[in-house]
Known about the structure:
Elements: E1 5-7, H1 19-22, E2 31-33, H2 49-61
Parallel strand pairs: 1-2
Amino acid sequence: MLDISLCRNEFCPLRDKCYRATATPDEYGQSYAVFNLNADGTCNWFWDNEEYENKYKNEKVQGRI
Length: 65
């Protein structure tokens, strides 16, 4: 199970690049939220897919996961 809230903001222009929007949800207990953009077009809850995947891979290789 992913221990994060996934994003349900279907109108977000960052959606395709955000891990919170593109991650595969847990079948039984996934939490969701609608995260809204700031006035400047940024999102405080944005997780870049590439950065997240690279970090996860590095931690897995180093034995942290």
